[in-house]
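> forwarded from #structure-qc
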């Protein structure tokens, strides 16, 4: 639609459509706009899928305050606990997973839409260097774990096989991180991966609205918008035709995680083998909640025998958060969601359709930058865990937090989840690997405050280190590489 530069009033048809949805206020300042600004405003409104946006706003506002089924804890018997697994099972799952990886059945899905704002950086969070001896960024550490796994899968292939498997890496960015993420990967030559095995795609945005569902205007000619949450990944995969792309490549399973975990076992073969063995549609790694007030969501059942879902820490009543299971002496609601998930490709198709049909988003009350300054409004978001209620079958797999969960969420100086705390978790784990492989560590500061870093190119979970470490002494802090 072309707007005449000197148009005295907004385009009639567009104005009628906005009136249908109660959003005509978007044109309230039309008379004060320059011709160029009028063009921008019309283009901005036309870029919105108004029927869809209206449906989402109405369904989400209406769902607020509706009664929900009582929360039930997930019984320990429903979880594959660390102490409940035998060495034999773990080895069998590892081999099953490596075989599926070498057959090209697993792809990796990275949620990387966030900026490092809380870390004091405007770069994508994955570019952040947590201060390891190697100086590697989160992106580089994760890329090198994929490279290591490709090598292990190639070694596990039968003799005489041609070529080595490529693990496809699908990276979801946001409008704020897309270009800098692509440039970062290009400038670092994809950290040794093939450029064609890495695919970038963007999550969507949603208009920010007032409490009564009206658009908030960021400027007189632009609606305020915000990314649609990490659960926007389902819609984004569908609209970008990437689910079809995966199917055409023979991919059956998706390993999905958030970028800000310095200990993430990307494409973990043991988890994949367990997932395949259980024959479920969705699975999550969980860690035991450390203390009642810990800021993590927990897996619960909605009603007796109801669907498995996640309740955010902000939505869990304090009495429930502190409740103790009298039999085990542990918290009743103890299975923390740490954004380490596995899905079948078929299930992702169902989720994308189901979430779109139901159109219920979480409403986050935020201060929104607007033409009236900082305004109280609502951001509409979906979360990755919104998929779980749609799963006919789900499995939970307990992992140890000091082996697989080192979140990087807050700037150094905060009380928890800082680059410093994540770095120490990595150094301590790798120090244990080196000592187990027969190496020695010397240090001039207390060992609890330092340690050694093992390059992901050398070892994925501490395997194959004897040849590098046995009988050798390493002075902490240092990086151990080939």
């Amino acid at each position: 639609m072309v707007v005449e530069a000197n148009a005295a009033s907004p385009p009639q048809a567009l104005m009628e459509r906005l009136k249908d949805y109660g959003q005509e206020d978007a044109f309230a300042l039309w008379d004060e706009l320059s011709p160029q600004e009028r063009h921008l405003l019309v283009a901005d409104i036309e870029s919105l899928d108004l029927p869809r946006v209206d449906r989402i706003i109405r369904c989400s506002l209406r769902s607020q305050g509706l009664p929900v089924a009582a929360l039930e804890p997930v019984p320990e018997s429903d979880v594959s606990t660390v102490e409940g697994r035998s060495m034999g099972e773990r080895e069998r799952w590892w081999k099953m997973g490596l075989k599926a990886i070498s057959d090209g059945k697993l792809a990796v899905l990275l949620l990387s839409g966030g900026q490092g704002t809380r870390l004091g950086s405007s770069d994508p969070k994955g570019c952040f260097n947590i201060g390891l001896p190697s100086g590697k960024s989160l992106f580089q550490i994760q890329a090198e774990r994929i490279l290591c796994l490709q090598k292990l899968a190639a070694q596990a292939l039968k003799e005489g096989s041609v070529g080595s498997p490529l693990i496809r890496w699908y990276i979801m960015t946001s409008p704020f991180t897309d270009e800098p993420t692509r440039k970062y990967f290009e400038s670092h030559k994809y950290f040794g991966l093939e450029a064609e095995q890495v695919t970038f795609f963007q999550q969507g945005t949603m208009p920010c609205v007032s409490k009564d569902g009206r658009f908030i205007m960021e400027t007189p000619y632009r609606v305020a918008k915000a990314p649609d949450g990490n659960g926007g990944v389902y819609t984004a995969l569908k609209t970008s035709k990437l689910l079809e792309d995966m199917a055409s490549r023979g991919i059956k399973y998706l390993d999905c995680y958030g970028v800000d975990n310095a200990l993430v076992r990307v494409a973990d073969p043991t988890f994949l083998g367990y997932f395949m063995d259980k024959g479920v549609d969705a699975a999550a790694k969980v860690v035991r909640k450390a203390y009642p007030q810990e800021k993590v969501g927990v897996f619960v059942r909605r009603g007796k025998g109801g669907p498995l879902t996640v309740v955010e820490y902000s939505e869990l009543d304090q009495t429930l958060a502190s409740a103790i299971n009298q039999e085990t002496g542990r918290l009743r609601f103890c299975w923390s969601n740490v954004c380490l998930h596995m899905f079948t490709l078929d299930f992702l198709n169902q989720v994308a359709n189901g979430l779109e049909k139901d159109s219920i988003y979480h409403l986050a009350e935020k201060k929104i930058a607007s033409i009236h300054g900082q305004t109280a409004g609502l951001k509409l978001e979906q979360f990755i865990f919104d998929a779980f209620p749609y799963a006919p079958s789900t499995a939970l797999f307990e992992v140890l937090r000091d082996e697989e969960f080192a979140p990087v969420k807050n700037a150094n100086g905060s009380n928890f989840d800082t680059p410093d705390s994540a770095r120490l978790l990595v150094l301590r784990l790798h120090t244990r690997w080196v000592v187990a492989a027969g190496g020695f560590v010397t240090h001039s500061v207390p060992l609890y405050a330092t340690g050694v870093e093992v390059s992901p190119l050398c070892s994925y979970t501490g395997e194959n280190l004897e040849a590098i470490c046995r009988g050798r002494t390493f002075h902490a802090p240092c990086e151990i590489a080939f």
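QC bot note: The chain has 14 helices and 21 strands. The first strand starts at residue 71 and ends at 73.
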